[in-house]
């Protein structure tokens, strides 16, 4: 089943985030991941959620996401993201 990663970012360092973005897309591809959405101005239609930079990545399954997220090559990129932005993320699995 396809797994989606939804990430809500508040970016504090745009140049660092841009460097992260290029590197992470290439690495995610090694795990079957691909970007679906990068929305800087999401339209809120209901509720209190107000993301400022919404990213959606698609992976073949939940295990591929975990393999990507836990990969040794991702750890320095994760540290880069955590310095450049505040984020919330989750994995959802479709049917």
Give a structural overview.
- There is one protein chain.
- With 95 residues, the protein is α+β, with helices and mostly antiparallel strands.
- The chain has 3 helices and 4 strands.
- The chain has helices spanning 14-30, 62-70, 75-84; strands spanning 3-11, 34-39, 53-59, 85-93.
- Strands 2-3-1-4 form a 4-stranded antiparallel sheet.
- Helix 1 (14-30) runs antiparallel to helix 3.
- The N and C termini lie close together (6 Å).
- The mean pLDDT is 94.
Give a nutshell description of this structure.
The protein is α+β, with helices and mostly antiparallel strands and 95 residues long.
**Span between N and C termini?**
6 Å
Strand runs, count:
4
Compute the number of helices. Answer: 3
Residues in helices, as a percent range: 25-40%
List the helices and strands and how they pair.
Blueprint (H helix, E strand, L loop, with lengths): L2 E9 L2 H17 L3 E6 L13 E7 L2 H9 L4 H10 E9 L2
Antiparallel strand pairs: 1-3, 1-4, 2-3
